[in-house]
Amino acid sequence: MIIKISNLGEGQHQFSQTGKIEELGLSEPFFDGYDLEVKLDKAHHQIVLNSSINLKAHFECDRCSEEFDRSLNANYEMVYMFTEEPEVSGDEELNIVYLLPETDKIDISKDLYDFSILSIPMKKLCKEDCKGLCYKCGTNLNEKQCSCNNEEVDPRWQPLLDLKNKLNN
After folding, report:
1. Contact 52, 15 (CB under 8 A)
2. 102 and 153 together in one domain
């Protein structure tokens, strides 16, 4: 997505856009479209861009293997500084990009792609309290309780179980 900045006056500007995820170069697990809100605060020597993108993604639960859809939201801030020195490179760690004063547009497509990918959770759970599968019979414990005997304790865990029982009493 390219934002034309040459005609923008100093001050705050807002943009909204919707589109298909393919426009951003995204594919699975994302599907459907995206909603993008961009707020620009333009000053004489810099532009501060705040962006919020809402996406839908399709996952498989890491505990129970059920498929589910989730809405994801990626927010980020980028600072564009104007400089006369073209060899100055940006600082990705601080989200700073240096531009020449005659720059007339900025391309935020790569940033939207990167922050969309970063919005994917490390642990994908269908619900916060997902009980998962029984490690013996494979029953989905969210749907029903299995009849497996779970009383056997690995002897290596016994000291922790003793400590837990001591703390509960």
Report:
1. no
2. no
Stronger pLDDT, 163 or 6, i.e. the higher one:
163
Same domain, 112 and 140: no
Residue 114 has pLDDT above 60, yes or no: yes
pTM score of the predicted model = 0.72
Taken as a whole, the chain contains a residue count of: 169
Q: Cα–Cα distance between 106 and 49 in angstroms, integer? A: 10
Shared-domain flag, residues 42 and 95: yes
Please give the tally of structural domains in the chain: 2
Do the domain assignments include residue 127?
Answer: no
Same domain, 113 and 143: no
Token readout for 108 is: 């935020």
The end-to-end CA distance of the chain, in Å, is: 60
Q: Can you tell me the distance from the alpha carbon of 47 to that of 5, in angstroms, rounded to the nearest whole number?
A: 9
Whole-Å CA distances, 126 to 18, 114, 120: 26, 24, 13
Q: Which residue has the tokens 């998962």?
A: 132
Using a 10 angstrom Cβ sphere, with 0-12 exposed, 13-18 middle and 19 or more buried, the burial of residue 59 is middle
Range of the domain at 140: 133-169
What pLDDT, on a 0 to 100 scale, did the predictor assign at position 90? 55
